Structure to design on (666 residues):
């Protein structure tokens, strides 16, 4: 039979079919070197075509292998046909291990059913992109962004899907941390604003209670307000003094709370590091956490005297608060006398060691290595985000310190901070201003504050010893000074709605420098950038609201010679 | 590879007494073609002694001959004599199949 002979018989046809079959088999088994192109009737070397194909494949394979995204193809049954190295590494496998694995087996059990159901129902559409969680070979969760595209054969029939998988675990962590920081920053701004608003009336409450209390115990000097009170029977006087003492104590507690709030709500610009008194910050943190702690445990403090550490008050307070709340949450509610939260502060070489321990059930050994991982939490949904300790760890590391954990199942957990001391500086000791000896002379004091309550209170506290003039604006103060009035002391609110204390200072430096040197600023705790710069550059004294009567009088006496 | 290669072992020119006439189409020195030539030679030497003629034709150099013989892939072995014409496709590594086509089985 030759190629040109027509098919003449069934035998002939059978032979041709056999030859066609043999040709196909030879092609399939790779025994063919060349084919004759049926259109151009010219021979085509398969080897060359194959080489070109191999080169092309190699190029694509290189692209697929060097990309930073994971790339997989799956068949219609969702089994992996191809996985590039990046995808395999992402999940801790060798690429070969993944072939024929169902993609659903790489998902978390909770997501598997939903994904499988959706896949069965309508496959993956063109360019569908989803965020999901895959499971690493070691069991950890990998957050991924998957872009899927259907794959079709030469005839347009669906054969499976191509998936481009990006590991977004780190990005999500950063986003979450940023979100938490953002939220804390807004809460902080709000808290700082509230603290400022509370401080003015609180200053008035504290100073006025102190004024009345002082009047009760002071020897009669004919003072106008106190005269009626002092005329009371001593028993009645004691009866009045007791509730006033309570009121003062309560107001002082509010004052501490506001001060604590301010510590925790410093805006980033106010987070400048400096020598910080660890014990004071821990006391603040204990007060803030008290509501969480008191129903669950008693606190045992072991505070040794330590040097100041180089830190930001706000951030260190955040770390302490977090550790204390964590310790409290590790303990069951009730039976607070049986459970203990230990807080230790002690020196250790060039460091200050702070330990927060609890007598809870401890951390399971398999979880111990992960407590500082973002998103790792064993708390119920809604109780913990799994970010607290991760953020603490970052804050402490940024300070040049270390944060470590020790735990034994059944014996409780201890978190240990090592913080480098701030040079040779002692902690700044904040105590009452030492009373200045009274000169006996009545001084002249100008009070400039837009808050009427503050003006009245300062006047009342100082009026017995000094002549006080109170005005509500800088313009009024300037008018007085311009008319030749001279004061031993100008107590001026720093931040006022119209002209500020800074404006008054500037004017006085120009017109009467001696008066400018006698300015003391009353501050409410919230500063603008300008105010912060001003205070840093100008050697003036500040009194933070709420002030108390004793300290205020002591300051004034120093200016009245 | 030469255009037409009467093998030295093919013995005397086509004439009486010749038992088998073969034509093997190959594509240059591509691997399967080289293998087919070697296999064809070995089979013929073993089973047909010197009573055969094996002509090797390179498809790349003589495409028209190939078209005339209805060749669409190489290697293809044509048994021209004795009739009927038979063709074996592939590198001829399956000796039984080749012998069957050559009428020896």
């Amino acid at each position: 039979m030759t190629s040109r002979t027509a098919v003449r018989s069934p035998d002939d046809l059978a032979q041709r079919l056999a030859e066609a079959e043999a040709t196909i088999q030879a092609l399939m088994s790779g025994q063919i070197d060349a084919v004759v192109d049926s259109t151009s009737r010219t021979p085509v070397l398969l080897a060359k075509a194959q080489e070109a194909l191999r080169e092309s494949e190699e190029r694509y394979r290189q692209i697929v292998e060097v990309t930073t995204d994971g790339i997989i193809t799956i068949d219609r049954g969702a089994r992996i046909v191809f996985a590039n190295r990046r995808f395999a590494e992402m999940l801790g496998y060798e690429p070969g291990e993944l072939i024929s694995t169902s993609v659903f087996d790489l998902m978390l059990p909770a997501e598997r059913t939903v994904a499988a159901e959706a896949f069965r129902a309508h496959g993956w559409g063109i360019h569908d992109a989803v965020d999901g969680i895959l499971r690493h070979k070691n069991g950890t969760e990998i957050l991924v962004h998957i872009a899927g595209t259907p794959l079709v054969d030469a005839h347009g029939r669906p054969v499976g899907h191509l998936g481009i998988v990006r590991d977004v675990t780190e990005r999500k962590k950063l986003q979450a941390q940023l979100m938490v920081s953002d939220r804390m920053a807004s809460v902080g701004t709000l808290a700082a604003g509230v603290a400022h608003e509370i401080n003015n009336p609180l200053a008035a409450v504290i100073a006025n209670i102190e004024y009345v209390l002082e009047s009760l115990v002071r020897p009669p000097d004919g003072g106008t307000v106190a005269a009626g009170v002092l005329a009371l029977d001593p028993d009645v006087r004691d009866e009045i003094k007791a509730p006033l003492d309570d009121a003062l104590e309560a107001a002082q507690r509010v004052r501490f709370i506001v001060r604590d709030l301010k510590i925790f709500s410093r805006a980033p610009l106010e987070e400048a590091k400096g020598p910080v008194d660890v014990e004071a910050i821990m006391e603040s943190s204990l007060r803030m956490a008290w509501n969480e702690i008191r129903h669950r445990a008693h606190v045992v403090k072991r505070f040794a005297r330590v040097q100041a550490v180089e830190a930001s008050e706000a951030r260190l307070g955040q770390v302490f608060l977090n550790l204390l709340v964590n310790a409290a949450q590790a303990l069951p509610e009730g039976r607070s006398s049986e459970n203990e939260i230990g807080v230790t502060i002690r020196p250790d070489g060039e460091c200050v060691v702070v330990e927060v321990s609890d007598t809870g059930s401890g951390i399971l050994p398999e979880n111990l290595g992960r407590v500082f991982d973002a998103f790792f939490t064993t708390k119920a949904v809604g109780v913990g985000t799994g970010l607290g300790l991760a953020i603490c760890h970052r804050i402490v590391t940024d300070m040049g310190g270390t944060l470590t954990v020790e735990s034994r199942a059944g014996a409780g957990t201890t978190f240990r901070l090592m913080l480098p001391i701030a040079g040779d500086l002692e902690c700044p000791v904040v105590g009452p201003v030492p009373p200045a000896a009274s000169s006996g002379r009545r001084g002249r004091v100008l009070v400039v504050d837009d808050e009427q309550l503050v003006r009245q209170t300062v006047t009342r506290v100082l009026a017995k010893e000094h002549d006080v003039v109170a005005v509500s604006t800088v313009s009024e103060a300037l008018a007085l000074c311009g008319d030749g009035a001279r004061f031993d002391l100008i107590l001026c609110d720093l931040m006022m709605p119209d002209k500020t204390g800074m404006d008054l200072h500037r004017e006085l430096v120009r017109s009467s420098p001696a008066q400018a040197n006698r300015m003391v600023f009353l501050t409410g705790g919230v500063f603008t950038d300008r105010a912060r710069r001003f205070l840093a550059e100008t050697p003036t004294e500040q009194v933070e609201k709420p002030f108390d009567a004793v300290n205020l009088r002591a300051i004034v006496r120093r200016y009245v010679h | 590879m030469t255009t037409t290669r009467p093998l030295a072992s093919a013995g005397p020119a086509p004439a009486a007494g010749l038992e088998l006439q073969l034509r093997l189409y190959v594509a240059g020195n591509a691997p399967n073609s080289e293998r087919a030539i070697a296999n064809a030679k070995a089979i013929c030497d073993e089973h047909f002694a010197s009573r055969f003629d094996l002509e090797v034709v390179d498809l790349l150099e003589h495409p028209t001959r190939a078209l005339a013989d209805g060749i669409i892939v190489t290697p293809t072995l044509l048994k021209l004599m004795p009739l009927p014409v038979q063709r074996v496709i592939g590198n001829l590594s399956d000796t039984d199949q080749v012998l069957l086509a050559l009428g020896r089985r």
